[in-house]
Amino acid sequence: MRLILLGPPGAGKGTQAARLVEKHGIPxxxxxxxxxxxxxxxxxxxxxxxxxxxxxxxxxxxxxxxIVSERIDEPDAAKGxxxxxxxxxVAQAEALTAMLADKGISLDAVIELKVVEDELVKRIEKRAxxxxxxxxxxxxxxxxxxxxxxxxxYRNKTAPLSAYYERQGELKTVDGMADMDVVTxxxxxxxxxxxx
Length: 196
Fold this sequence. Notes:
By secondary structure, the chain is of the alpha/beta class. The chain has a domain at 2-26 and 79-115 and 158-191: Rossmann fold, CATH 3.40.50. It has nine helices and five strands, in the order E-H-E-H-H-H-E-H-E-H-H-H-E-H. The chain has a five-stranded parallel sheet, sandwiched between helices. Helix 2 crosses helix 3, helix 3 (44-54) runs antiparallel to helix 4 (61-72) and helix 6 (117-133) crosses helix 7 (144-158). The longest helix has 17 residues, at 117-133.
């Protein structure tokens, strides 16, 4: 089962991905984790990424695509995977489609968690207040202004993926504002026809 979860920050992708990992035994592939692992392991592409990051540059799509490609080839991803944070742009999505085709595999589902942005801002503010009240450390970006900046970046760069995957006939949507268990159940309904 090869999946992409789409949705803006705070939509619940992390929660749902964790539930899918637990239920289906497939890894959640985070581009950030993959990048750090490639650098730490000193792979060819990891060394290339490290030199770019050390000089203050942004890692190019080509480097990220290669890191994702190598990670998908690892044994724990043979039964499937959930992509987290990739693709972020239509160019990355097109590269992913070509990469998977070269490997003789394809995505089984692209699931977008649809949300109401104003409600998301309230969720973030509530999460920050609850974390602080419990004596926990509130993330630096868990405030309304930072969150709105992240939403704007998502709208500009990542939201066009919905239209791309809709044109491919792969996009399914779920009401991300529903209760977490309801969202999980809706995702499972979508996956019922997906091979495991």
